[in-house]
Prior knowledge:
Structural class: alpha+beta
CATH architecture of the largest domain: 3-Layer(aba) Sandwich
Mean pLDDT: 92
Largest sheet: 8 strands, mixed
CATH superfamily of the largest domain: Vaccinia Virus protein VP39
Number of strands: 25
CATH topology of the largest domain: Rossmann fold
Radius of gyration: 27 Å
Low-confidence stretches: 111-120, 478-483
Number of helices: 18
Oligomer: single chain
Helix content: 25-40%
Amino acid sequence: MNRKEAAFLSTEELSSLLVTKTPDLTVHDPVKKKEEIRRYFHNTVTLFESLFDCLKDDSVYYFQPNPLRHPHIFYFGHTAVFYINKLRVAGHISERLDPEFESKFAIGVDEMSWDDVDQGHYDWPSVDDVRAYRNKMREIVDGVIQKCDLSEKQISWSHPLWIVMMGIEHERIHLETSSVLIRETPLDKLKPHPVWGNICREHGEAPKNQLLPVQGGTVQLGKDHTDPYYGWDNEYGHLKVEVSDFQASQYLVSNREFFEFIEDGGYQNQEYWTEEGWGWVTYKNAKHPVYWIKDGDTFRYRTMLEEVDLPWDWPAHVNALEAQAFCQWKSQKTGKNICLPTEAQWYQLRSLESSDQPNWEKAPGNLNLEYEMSSCPVTRHAFADGFYDIVGNAWQWTRTAIHPFEGFEIHPAYDDFSVPTFDGKHDLFKGGCWISTGNYALRLSRYAFRRHFFQHAGFRYIEETRADRHESTSEPSAEENIYNRDAIIAEYAEFHYGDTHFNVPNFQVKCAGIAVEAHGNGKRHRALDLGCATGRAAFELAQHFDWVDGVDFTARLLQVPSSLQNKGSYQYEIPSEGELVIDKEIHLSELGYQGVKDKVAFQQGDACNLPEKYKDYDLVLALNLLDQLYDPEAFLRLIQERIQPGGTLVLGTSCNWSTEFTPREKWLGGFCNADGAPQTTLDGIREILAPSFEQVGEALEVPFVMRETQRTFQHSHSQISIWRRR
Length: 726
């Protein structure tokens, strides 16, 4: 099942992989079900690899088409290590395949803001090495599928095959997002492809759009775990929304219709744009959609592998900010209340089409790779009641920011898939596009991106009365629904910001004070809080440094400091006894951080593989981190180069070495060395840092207390050592 290295699949081989449907996870025959998932797995991996056959040569793998994304090589490796990392986290395999790869390719780039450009450089492996890793990964996952017990009547999300499906559907997400990155790669770095280059050749003058009535009703959002198809955690739970009658555009907004907005000065008139949107326009100097190419007095159009005459009757591919601005412009021109639909309104329109991906004989719209490898005219795919492209052709932006439904639970193997997006800044889009497959093409799927994000996405607009608009917003605001009942987030929020116990001072405040005092009169330009969790020490350091970065591997923990920065408060609940809980709320102003909150940036990151932008620090604080790392020596060697001469490194560790986190051969201490003498963690740190750092004073023993319930606590000590770079 392994791919031939650096060779095209034949047109027939690739074409046979295109049209697939996500498996039903109900088990009637265990042998047949495992074989069905096995075929779906290999189909997915091969299909994804085939997309990279569009790159001209191996050098293009290292090209970075978008400054907010890694180069292509990252995504080529990322989808493979995802299978291994998630199977290991879930306890279904015990050994790593390649720890370096499984770190380097683990974390992508979250477009935290449209001007957060990472110019970092990475020591990427060769394409052949990544291909070899992908082939080994196939063998391991294939073995998991074939050897697992399948006695369940339906595959549950704790079963190894659920984790395999998680990897498959994750790879199908990246099939689409990588096609976008290829679309952003210069054509001279690409080559023709007999299948991926098979775009629609039909285009003409666009139809005149009109508003058609949609009858309102009760929309039940979400699903439960009896649903027979794989879903991401944000899809589960329930929300009932009453939707009033409204009108929706018959067609997706075409390039021609969007051109009217451009001709009328849409990109030059601030009144059409939100504050966020105008900030994006001015920063990017945007004058037209990103895939339009100005050619004298006309425009050309970029598909994935070609530049063609602008197809006026294809859907306009824009981001949510552009779609919002168009609607505001349209409202002013028509005197009607034109806006994007909510998620519930889109579902009310979607109810006009009864078929769903696993059950259709042929996709009802330009979806699931069942037509050409591009969008097509908005007049091609007709649905009920006169509408076109209810699903497919281009994603459709909504005005709903993603939020958790009632009953939402985080999947423990992928705890940062959804929660980081519950911030009011990630809007849902619905319906899929030409390359949307698997879960992407299911009716109940939920995907959200930042409003400046580009995908193969367009929009349709609706008209509603002002009263209807107020009623249609009965969907919860994401900002009011940041998930605050997660036990881990609550535990760390309480540890950082809650009450103290047994006369033990707040650990983060205490250690930040130790670090600042140890740093003395040194430069105070930049500090790094590594393993920052919910961010208290970072805010403390910001009172003494010009800039502080807070980095943690667990993205969902960063919701706490992010909420404090953006809203000024964070609510959570902690267990009391049994099912009883205590509601808590943190206020930034009461903590005294209001004046420094904008001096701190929080972001997910891997301490053993920090991006190059994290450098030139005067102080680095890493509390209770070393014995949680898969390669602590790699971290210590990396961090040395990120600290300025004369800078300070403060390390805190409880020395609780365990193979759960760190392979035995990677422990820094807690064992007898080759001479039979005991080696402590401090000995191991000293051996690595000694050439460039000197220890300042003796190590300190600093106590800390973590609350579990009203009467249960963890009382521990952290060994704090201070080091100065020579």
